[in-house]
Specification:
- By secondary structure, the chain is an alpha+beta fold.
- The protein has a single domain, classed as Outer membrane efflux proteins (OEP) (Up-down Bundle).
- The chain is 68% helix and 10% strand.
- The protein contains nine helices and six strands; from the N terminus they run αβααββααβααββαα.
- The strands form two sheets. It has a four-stranded antiparallel beta sheet, with no helix packed on it. Strands 1-4 form a two-stranded parallel sheet.
- 26% of the residues are buried.
Length: 423
């Protein structure tokens, strides 16, 4: 083998290792992002809370099927005239009866029992839908929190870059003898504060990402950011009356109505319980003394001397009326909440419009003028610092206004059962 080739082998191996490490570092530094739609799909597929609700719904359905089944017959045996005295001593005079009895439910009890169980199953399905929609909208809110945190991190990065730029100008002025060392010391202090603020906001973003991932049971997030448009201007809202009409299909209201129907079904079940059941039996009896057989038959009926279940009926009627009134109250409360959200969204939209069209441009122009004056020695570092803070404050107000607007809009969409993957 060529000695020159052998001498180059370690160098080639080192180069390969260096490339591998560089690629790994690049992969680790890459930002892993997900869309809002992907977050919604993950929570719908993986959430432990939704999975437990699925089993609850299945259990309610099974109970409904069981309630619709008829009562089982009974098989019984009875031995008489055994172990007595005289002719009844031993088993010589015994009479053995084997009979089958069946309880017959009168008053349509079985149908009412099945109706109550089916209503309870419907409530379980409605509650599962409530859990699903609530979790989806909670995920939307958590994704919004991540995006708001991302915007604040970008703002902090821009603020840090601006502080460093101003610090460079201050250093140049000190070196040129146009300013004192005090100006550069202030610049260093502001730079350190901006760096600390940036690290704090990055930590808040990581916490927001972790809170979002926990919604579908992921303790170690596999993403770092949520993609999507955040700072788009508020869109026009539908008419208020149309939103109130859409709220009628809200899963929470539908679940309350299903619960009210369950109480109404229980009223029918309690009324049917006033009718006593009939029990019939038939069997055969053997007479040991003569070896003869005979058939026996019987019927029994509960005598309603002490109770006719009137209190049970009244209690069920009271429960049904209470459930109906609670549904009405929930509907009125929801309508009031929608009206408040609608008014607040109008206010936030106007505020966002003024911030973007008036406050932000003025702050940007002021900072530009002050920076130029600072370069020319006509303005001090404190003037630049004040103008920079005004600009950062204006941009932060826009971020917070948009975040609040989108959060209130998510809440409004939850009340009107309108789910969208876009923020």
């Amino acid at each position: 083998m060529n000695p020159f080739t052998l001498s180059r082998a370690p160098l080639c191996l080192f180069a390969i290792m260096l490339c591998t490490l560089s690629l790994g570092a690049a992969e680790r530094g890459a930002v892993r992002s997900v869309t809002v739609g992907e977050c919604l799909r993950r929570v719908a597929e993986r959430s432990p809370a939704l999975k437990s609700g699925t089993y609850k719904t299945e259990a309610a359905g099974r109970r409904a099927k069981q309630a619709a089944r008829p009562l089982n017959p009974r098989l019984g045996t009875e031995v008489e005239n055994v172990g007595g005295s005289g002719a009844a001593q031993g088993f010589d005079a015994a009479e053995t009866t084997v009979a089958v009895s069946q309880e017959i439910e009168l008053g349509n009890k079985r149908w009412h029992r099945a109706a109550v169980a089916e209503s309870e199953a419907a409530v379980s399905r409605a509650e599962q839908e409530v859990r699903l929609r609530a979790l989806l909208f909670e995920t939307r809110g958590a994704a919004l929190a991540v995006q708001a945190a991302q915007e604040k991190v970008r703002l902090a990065e821009d603020a840090l870059a601006l502080v460093r730029e101003t610090g460079s100008v201050a250093t140049a002025r000190v070196e040129a003898g146009k300013a004192t060392v005090l100006e550069t010391e202030r610049a260093r202090a502001e730079t350190a504060k901006a760096e600390i603020e940036l690290e704090n906001l990055k930590a808040e973003q990581r916490n927001a990402v972790r809170d979002l991932a926990l919604l579908w049971g992921e303790t170690e997030p596999t993403f770092d950011a949520v993609t999507g448009t955040f700072d788009a201007g508020p869109s026009a809202l539908p008419p208020l009356d149309a939103l109130i009409l859409k709220a009628a299909s809200n899963p929470e209201l539908l679940a309350a109505e299903a619960q009210a129907r369950t109480y109404e079904a229980r009223v029918g079940a309690e009324r049917s319980a006033r009718m006593p059941n009939l029990e019939v039996s038939a069997g055969v009896r053997r007479f040991e003394e003569g070896g003869d057989f005979g058939f026996v038959a019987g019927a029994g009926l509960e005598l309603p001397f002490y109770t006719r279940n009137m209190d049970g009926v009244r209690a069920a009627e009271a429960d049904a009326e209470a459930a109906r009134l609670e549904t009405v109250a929930a509907r009125l409360k929801m309508e009031g909440h929608i009206r408040k959200l609608y008014a607040r969204l109008d206010t936030l939209a106007a505020k966002n419009n003024r911030l973007k069209k008036s406050v932000l441009p003025a702050a940007e122009r002021a900072l530009g003028f002050v920076k130029e004056s600072h370069r020319q020695g006509k303005a001090g570092y404190l003037d630049v610092l004040e103008a920079r803070r005004a600009l950062v404050d204006a941009r932060l107000q826009i971020i917070e206004t948009v975040a609040e607007y989108q959060g209130r809009l998510i809440e409004l969409n939850r009340l009107t059962d309108t789910l969208s993957e876009t923020l």
